Amino acid sequence: MDLTSFLETLMAIPHLSWKNLVMMGVGALFVYLGIRHKWEPLLLVPIGFSAILANIPHSGLVEEGGFLWMVKKYLIDTEVIPLLIFLGIGAMTDFEPLIADPKTLLLGAAAQLGVYVALLSALILGFGLPEAASIGIIGGADGPTAIYTTTKLAPHLLGPVAVAAYSYMSLVPLIQPPIILALTTKKERSVVMEPLRKVSRREKIVFPIVVFAVSALLVPKAAPLIGMLMLGNLLRESGVTKRLADAAANEIINAATILLGLGIGSTMVGDYFLNVQTLEILALGVVAFAASTAGGVLLGKLMYLLSGGKINPMIGAAGVSAVPMSARVVQRLGQRENPENFLLMHAMGPNVAGVLGTAMAAGVFLSLLGS
Predict the structure, then answer these.
(1) pLDDT at 38 (0 to 100)
(2) Which member of 76, 133, 200, 315 has the greatest number of CB atoms within 10 A?
(3) CB contact at 8 A, 236 and 244
(4) Given this model, what pLDDT does residue 209 score?
(5) Coil, helix or strand for 308?
(6) What is the mean pLDDT of residues 189-208?
């Protein structure tokens, strides 16, 4: 049977539209990319498979009362899953590079440029302000934060925003290098930075407490996200809650990731997903990621000049929240220019700072635009 005959046979199935077939193909592509190329497989595989399931007519999975409907309704829409994922991320994250070099927090802030570029671009395209804010968060390269914000401000855009955020996160190794190379010179990329200082256990314990207290006071709407992130980190660093930290970093986040993938995939039903608006959001996602990378690198170049050439400006690209992918991109580029260059730990400072920066930006949007 040739491809045309196969497609004609599929189209003969009652209520199966071409849009369903397209989204099944997209789901299959996600599964392929996750398995074959290992692009965010923990998310692309469940998202892709769920998208295939969601487009099977009359399966009952996405209709009210169906399994995928309940996952989205009670676990995604209520923000339970994004917050549990932030708990797990906190338990897996070592903030030592940021504590050792606090000025890299500025690079994480500069890399939020894409959030505001995408927001303004979305407004120009005709999106409402809450919708534009949700789309803008894609620029932070932080999937759970994008989902959390969109669920509160523009729940009807959850599908395309989540797909854009996680799709482009998996493409960070392809998106960032051309931008970094275009904005830096070989001399700048070859800079070898001094080793970071050793951080004490007391500093590691105090850090999550202070960060949560300050952020909650400044931007109360960011408290749920940063609170769960810092709780997870405190469980990791306290030294007395190893079992809880291990559970948060393994069983809890693994289960939450599966459910998150299923919930996102359930929104990718062809009749609702395939439209001009979705294409605009996907395009804005690219703009957001590119602008965020550029923002971090440009501030890195300024720091390079002010430090007398002691700071490698590439670490600014790691200011997006894609942990640790962006830091690995910087490490790989640095090694290519200078085999003695080990930038991973230096890049992890702005990388984890980007998580905080995106959460704060989301908190500001929720404070201004939320109910």
Answers:
(1) 86
(2) 315
(3) no
(4) 97
(5) coil
(6) 95
For residue 207, give both structure tokens: 């850090």
- Each domain of the chain, given as residue ranges in start order, spans 92-249+268-369
Please give the model's pTM, rounded to 2 decimal places.
0.90
- Which residues, 6 or more positions from 73, have their beta carbon under 8 angstroms from its beta carbon? none
pLDDT above 70: residue 325: yes
Kindly give, in sequence order, each residue whose CB lies less than 8 Å from that of residue 46, ignoring residues fewer than 6 positions away: 257, 258, 260, 261, 262, 265
Which amino acid is residue 11, in one-letter code? M
Rounded to an integer, the average pLDDT of 230-238 is: 97
**What is the spatial distance between Cα 320 and Cα 143, in angstroms, rounded to a whole number?**
11
Evaluate whether 151 touches 76 at the Cβ level (below 8 Å).
yes
Residue 224 CB contacts under 8 Å (≥ 6 apart), including other chains = 79, 83, 148
* Percent with pLDDT over 90 in the chain: 77
| pLDDT for the residue 9 | 57
Residue 83 near residue 225, CB atoms below 8 Å: yes
The mean pLDDT value of the chain amounts to 91
Tracing tokens 């487009």 back to the chain, one arrives at 55
Q: Which residues contact 90 (CB under 8 A, 6 or more apart)?
A: 208, 228, 229, 230, 231, 232, 233, 234, 235, 236, 248
